[in-house]
Design brief:
mainly beta; 40 strands; about 15% helix; five-stranded mixed β-sheet; about 45% strand; Immunoglobulin-like; 5 helices
Length: about 525
C-alpha cells in the first residue's frame, strides 16, 4: 500500500512539470486596431496589434491572405502600413494570426470601404478623351452616371463584383482652366463622391482676383511642359516676373504684389518658352480697388498725418474729409492713380475716426484714425471732509414734516424726491485743457466698493446733492469720483472718503420731544386758566 502511494506521488512530480513546459505561455488579451477605420480603395491605413505570442504574423482581408511574415516584437506588438485593396462598398474584416499555432493568438476588426473616383489631374486640350475610374461602389451596382461641371454626361456605367467601374468620355467644349467631375447612382449620392478637379491646361490660377495696390497674389501654373523654363508673368503686357521653372509634372507656384496702377480692371498674363508661347494660357482679370494709408494712424488734435492713396483714376482731383467734414485739403493723383497729401487732425469726440479720400471721377477710399487723447486726471475731493456725519432728519422741522411728506404724496414732494437734501458732495473742476468732461459719482457701503448703493453718471457739474431718495438707510458709507472726457477716456477714481449717515442726532431728538411737551403744557395751562376764570 505504501509503495503504491509512493509510486503515484513520483508520477505526479514528473508529469506536472512536463505538462507546464509543453503548454503555451499565458498571455494577455490579443487586440488589433486600424487607422483610419474607413476610406476609399487605395487609402493608406496603419494596422497595429498587441498581445500576440508568436514571432511572425499574417494579415487576412476577408479570409484572404494579403500580408505575411510581419515581425512581432518581444512584447507581442506589431505595426504595419497597408493600402485598401479593390473591394466593394461596406464593411470588411481584417484578421491577424501568428505562428504560435495557439488558437487564442488571433484577433480581427472591421474596416469600411467607401465609394470614390479617380480622374486625370489635367489634360492638354478640349475634346480630349479622359477616363474616370470608380472604386468601392456596391458589387454589380448599375446606373452609375458621371457629371462634368454639374452636367450629367450621356450613358452610364456598371460596377463589377468588386465595385469597380470605368467611364470614358470626350471633354465637352470648355475653356482652359478648372473643371469638376463627379458621379452618382440611385444608391450612391454625389455628395459621397465629392468634386474632383480636372484642369484643361496649360492654365494659371490667380488668387485673389481683386484688391488694392500692394495686394499679395498667388499664381499656380498647371500642366506646363516638364521642367519648362522661361515662364513669364506680365501686368497689362509689361513683364513683372520672369524665369520661373516648371516642376517634374509641369506645375509651378509663385507670389507677387500688385504694382502701382489706376483703379479698375487689369490683365495678368502668363506664357512660357516655345512650348507655351503667348496666347496659349488664358489671361486673368484683376480688379484694382482704391486704397489709402495713414501715417501715423493715431494721435491727438493737431497731429500731422500723411495720406498716401493708390488705385485712384489717373489725374483725378482728390479731396479729404474727416468724419464727413471737409479738411480743405485738395490734391491730384498721378498717371498711375497715386497721390500723397497732409492734414492736421481736428478736434474730435470719437475714438475711431473715418478719413475719406474722394475723387472727382468717382473713386473713394477710407481709413481709420484713432484719437489717443490722454485720460483726464482723477478729480480732487473738496467736501465733505473725511468721517463727516449726516442726519436724515437734521432739524426739528424734518422730524415732523418728513413723515407728513412721505404719507401725503403731495406733487411738489414727489417732484423733488422724497426727503430733504442730506448733503452736497463737491470736487474740483478738471482743467478745461483736457476738453469737455463729465463725472461719475459712486457711493458704497463701508470699504467694499463692490457693495455699491448709488452710481450717478454723466454729471456735468462738479457737485451732487444727496437726498433721502438716494439713500435712506443709516450706516457707514464711502464716496469717490472719476472724470470721463469727450471720447470716453476715464480717469482713475479719486480718493475715497467715508461718511456716517444717522437718522437723527440726540440733540435734535431731545428738542423734538421737548417742544411738543412744552406746547402741550402751554395749551393745558391756557385751558386751566381759562376754565378757572369762567368758574369765578
Amino acid at each position: 500500500m505504501h509503495s503504491k502511494v509512493l509510486f503515484i506521488s513520483l508520477a505526479l512530480i514528473i508529469t506536472l512539470p512536463m505538462i507546464l513546459l509543453l503548454s503555451p505561455a499565458p498571455v494577455h488579451a490579443v487586440s488589433i486596431s486600424v487607422a483610419p477605420t474607413s476610406g476609399t480603395v487605395g487609402t493608406s491605413i496603419q494596422i497595429r496589434g498587441n498581445g500576440f505570442s508568436g514571432r511572425l504574423a499574417t494579415i487576412h482581408w476577408d479570409d484572404q491572405v494579403v500580408l505575411s511574415k510581419i515581425p512581432i516584437s518581444e512584447t507581442g506588438e506589431l505595426t504595419c502600413n497597408w493600402k485598401i485593396p479593390p473591394a466593394s462598398r461596406g464593411d470588411h474584416i481584417i484578421k491577424i494570426t501568428d505562428d504560435s499555432n495557439w488558437t487564442e493568438s488571433t484577433a480581427s476588426t472591421i474596416l469600411t470601404v467607401l465609394p470614390g473616383i479617380t480622374t486625370p489631374t489635367c489634360t492638354g486640350q478640349t475634346h480630349a478623351r479622359i477616363t474616370v475610374t470608380g472604386t468601392g461602389f456596391a458589387a454589380s451596382e448599375k446606373g452609375i452616371r458621371v457629371t462634368w461641371d454639374g452636367t450629367v454626361l450621356p450613358s452610364s456605367a456598371t460596377a463589377d463584383n468588386l465595385g469597380t467601374w470605368s467611364f470614358n468620355f470626350i471633354i465637352p467644349e470648355a475653356s482652359k482652366g478648372e473643371h469638376f467631375v463627379s458621379a452618382f447612382s440611385n444608391s450612391t449620392d454625389a455628395s459621397e463622391i465629392g468634386e474632383h478637379r480636372v484642369t484643361v491646361a496649360p492654365f494659371a490660377k490667380v488668387v485673389p482676383t481683386s484688391g488694392p495696390v500692394g495686394t499679395e497674389i498667388t499664381i499656380d501654373g498647371f500642366c506646363f511642359r516638364t521642367g519648362e523654363d522661361g515662364i513669364t508673368i506680365t501686368w497689362d503686357d509689361e513683364i513683372i516676373l520672369c524665369n520661373l521653372v516648371g516642376g517634374p509634372d509641369g506645375s509651378w507656384n509663385t507670389t507677387l504684389n500688385i504694382p502701382p496702377c489706376t483703379k479698375g480692371h487689369h490683365t495678368i498674363g502668363v506664357y512660357g518658352s516655345s512650348f507655351t508661347p503667348k496666347g496659349i494660357v488664358p489671361d486673368t482679370d484683376f480688379e484694382v480697388i482704391p486704397h489709402i494709408e495713414l501715417q501715423p494712424t493715431s494721435g491727438n488734435k493737431g497731429t500731422k498725418v500723411t495720406v498716401n492713396g493708390y488705385g485712384f483714376a489717373s489725374d483725378e482731383a482728390i479731396t479729404l474729409n474727416f468724419e464727413d467734414n471737409s479738411l480743405n485739403v485738395k490734391t491730384t493723383s498721378d498717371n498711375a492713380g497715386s497721390f500723397s497729401a497732409v492734414f492736421l487732425v481736428p478736434q474730435s469726440t470719437l475714438k475711431n475716426n473715418s478719413v475719406q479720400a474722394i475723387g472727382s471721377a468717382g473713386s473713394s477710399a477710407e481709413a481709420i484714425f484713432i484719437t489717443e487723447k490722454t485720460a483726464p486726471p482723477a478729480p480732487t475731493l473738496l467736501s465733505p471732509q473725511q468721517d463727516a456725519k449726516f442726519e436724515i432728519f437734521n432739524s426739528v422741522g424734518d422730524v415732523f414734516l418728513e413723515p407728513v411728506k412721505l404719507l401725503s404724496g403731495i406733487a411738489t414732494f414727489r417732484q423733488n424726491g422724497l426727503g430733504s437734501p442730506i448733503a452736497t458732495f463737491d470736487w474740483a473742476d478738471i482743467d478745461a485743457a483736457s476738453g469737455k468732461v463729465n463725472y461719475i459719482l459712486q457711493i458704497y457701503r463701508g470699504d467694499d466698493s463692490s457693495a455699491q448703493v448709488l452710481l450717478k453718471e454723466n454729471l456735468l457739474e462738479s457737485e451732487y446733492t444727496l437726498s433721502q431718495s438716494d439713500i435712506s438707510t443709516k450706516g457707514l458709507y464711502s464716496w469717490r469720483v472719476k472724470a470721463v472726457d469727450d471720447i470716453g477716456n476715464e480717469s482713475q477714481w479719486s480718493e475715497a472718503r467715508k461718511f456716517d449717515l444717522i437718522r437723527v442726532s440726540n440733540q435734535t431728538l431731545i428738542i423734538s420731544i421737548v417742544i411738543p411737551i412744552l406746547v402741550i403744557a402751554a395749551i393745558l395751562a391756557i385751558v386751566i386758566l381759562t376754565w378757572r376764570k369762567h368758574k369765578r
